[in-house]
């Protein structure tokens, strides 16, 4: 167990130093990603003005108050807070750290203030929750707004667009509404002041009678939340450069952008002082024998996926399924010989004396 822990720690340290220490890596080390949920609008809105972007002199109202249901009369801020609370619960069950920009319907903070919550917490993602409204009552469907590369958002525009597309796809497949696509916006204060990835979901039209009723329906809200949660997981739980683990085992990513990783085609790989071999699906062999087709020698990969190696003239003896096997300094199993330390081993490598 201690060895395993050491191995885990090594992996984390390896990861940090391979890509440099970034906020993401700190999140990896602590094991928790931070999601900020920003429920749109508040009672009565907020009539103060604020700068639309740090690099512009345009001012905009802090909160126009949002829309409301054409048949239910339910205000947008009631729906957005309800969905946000449900999303928080679901994400926390999946081990995310969740921070809300507001928790009361009556709160109507400005958009800079909301963006600062994401910035100050180094959020991995800020998701802003909204509903649409239009004069045209036939308009339906969800869209995902993402920041244009202006203001602070220059650096997070492209990753936000990727996350936005992923989350929208999962939302549509969970709730089944019309897909209005991903839309880049340069005029949203809450985007332009964000230094961390941010998306804004318009979950449907409160100006459409059908969607208005659905948006206040408990089970439909659950579908929305399930879709948003799936999309967030798919966005944030991508693999990292270096070692990764999932339920199938350990694998080693060499280029996260292109999705490259080691497979059986790469042969033996020497990583951080140890030898590893990967199967055709890309998982490191673990607690198993391996016969190298290039030299017919047998090797053993231990529970940490590391090749068992002896030292020169000093075999490493390992108990595997109640028999002892000796390995040389190249990790090869001694067979049909007398080992340098004086044991006779048979053709299966089992010591006989
Ligand atoms: Zn809104």
TrEMBL record:
Transmembrane segments: none annotated. Residues 115-233 form the MurNAc-LAA domain. SUPFAM superfamilies: Cell wall binding repeat, Zn-dependent exopeptidases. Coiled coil: none annotated. GO terms for molecular function: N-acetylmuramoyl-L-alanine amidase activity. Keywords: Hydrolase, Repeat. Its EC number is 3.5.1.28. Cell wall-binding repeats lie at residues 265-284. InterPro entries: Cell_wall/Cho-bd_repeat, MurNAc-LAA_cat, N-acetylmuramoyl_amidase_3. SMART domains: Ami_3. One of its GO terms (cellular component) is outer membrane-bounded periplasmic space. This is N-acetylmuramoyl-L-alanine amidase AmiA.
């Amino acid at each position: 167990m201690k060895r395993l822990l050491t191995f885990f720690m090594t992996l984390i340290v390896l990861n940090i130093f391979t890509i440099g220490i970034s906020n993401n890596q700190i999140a990896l080390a602590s094991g928790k990603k931070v999601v900020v949920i920003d429920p749109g609008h508040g009672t009565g809105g907020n009539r103060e003005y604020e700068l639309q972007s740090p690099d512009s002199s345009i001012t905009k109202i802090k909160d126009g108050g949002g829309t409301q249901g054409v048949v239910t009369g339910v205000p947008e801020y009631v729906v957005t807070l309800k969905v946000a609370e449900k999303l928080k619960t679901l994400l926390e069950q999946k081990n995310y750290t969740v921070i809300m920009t507001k928790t009361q319907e009556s709160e109507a903070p400005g958009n800079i203030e909301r963006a600062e919550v994401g910035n100050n917490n180094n959020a991995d993602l800020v998701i802003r929750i909204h509903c649409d409204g239009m004069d045209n009552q036939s308009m339906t469907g969800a869209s995902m707004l993402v920041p244009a590369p202006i203001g602070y958002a220059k650096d997070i525009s492209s990753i936000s667009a990727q996350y936005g597309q992923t989350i929208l796809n999962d939302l549509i497949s969970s709730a089944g509404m019309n897909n209005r696509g991903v839309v880049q916006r340069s005029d949203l204060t809450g985007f332009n002041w964000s230094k961390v990835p941010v998306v804004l979901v318009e979950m449907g039209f409160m100006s459409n009678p059908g969607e208005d009723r659905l948006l206040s329906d408990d089970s439909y809200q659950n579908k929305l939340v399930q879709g948003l949660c799936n999309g967030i997981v798919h966005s944030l739980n991508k693999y990292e450069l270096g070692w990764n683990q999932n339920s199938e085992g350990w694998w080693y990513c060499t280029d996260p952008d292109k999705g490259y990783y080691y497979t059986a085609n790469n042969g033996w790989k020497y990583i951080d002082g140890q030898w590893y071999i990967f199967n055709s699906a890309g998982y490191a062999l673990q607690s198993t024998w391996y016969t190298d087709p290039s030299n017919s020698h047998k090797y053993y990969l231990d529970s940490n996926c590391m090749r068992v190696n002896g030292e020169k003239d000093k075999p490493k003896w390992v108990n595997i399924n109640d028999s002892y096997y000796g390995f040389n300094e190249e990790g090869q199993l001694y067979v049909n010989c007398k080992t340098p330390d004086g044991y006779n081993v048979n053709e299966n490598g089992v010591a006989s004396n």
